[in-house]
């Protein structure tokens, strides 16, 4: 039996297969997504901090009323982008002024819990809420009570100083109005809003300051889950923001003039040498 020479034997190559490690899961993806979201929020905040006041108000108005329907009937608690883009007076200061005027009168001070003021996307909303026995109007009628007239006169004295226009709304609860002649909550809500308008225009509001008078009956309850609650019976005043075209410094289309237009100086008429007229000589 022959023995092979070790030098002539083919080399033996051993290959080891490397296996994959254990599966680590997708937890890192969740952490990464949170990090990206946080960075995006940070950049948005930094952008808003450097944005103009008009942009800040427009963004705030969108988050108050994303659907943009609050301005359709004047009764929303939010604000639309269109409204907040208009020129605004300081409604917060106006609210403080009216509250201060109420505190100066002991009789009006007693009614502070029946007056609700809220700054919204449309302007300052002032709600005069009724009680079970009637506060601002005689029960079941459109006649303002003595405290109601005093409150309306006080407000008209302050609001009449402003260029802002007003919307006036009347609301009732869901109790059917008992009447034999067909007088219903529709007529009562409209008449109460119109009676408030008359008192205010006699006490300081300009004749053209009230833009609309609306009656909603029980179609826009303040407390929908308590349709017969007394606070559903109310008269609402909405002091609207002033539109840009009504203020000085704005162009006729409601936009701010450009820097070129502001700095432009009127061009004087060109002064050239006076034209000379030569007398034509007759041809010979």
Essential attributes:
9 helices, elongated, 284 residues, 60s Ribosomal Protein L30, Chain: A, five-stranded mixed sheet, alpha+beta
CATH topology of the domain at 88-246: 60s Ribosomal Protein L30, Chain: A
Q: How many helices in DSSP terms?
A: 9
Share of β-strand residues = 5-15%
Q: Give the terminus-to-terminus CA distance.
A: 151 Å
Succession of helices and strands? HHHHHHEEHEHEEH
Quaternary status of these chains? Answer: single chain
Task: Supply Rg.
Answer: 37 Å
Class by alpha and beta content: alpha+beta
What's the overall geometry?
elongated
Query: What is the level-2 CATH architecture name of the domain at 88-246?
Result: 2-Layer Sandwich
Count the beta strands.
5
Output mean pLDDT.
77
Superfamily (CATH H level) name of the domain at 88-246: OmpA-like domain
The main sheet comes to:
5 strands, mixed
What is the helix fraction of residues, given as a range? 25-40%
Quickly name the level 1 CATH class of the domain at 88-246.
Alpha Beta
Strand order of the biggest β-sheet: 1-2-5-3-4
Which regions contain 5 or more consecutive residues with pLDDT less than 50? 71-87, 246-264, 272-280
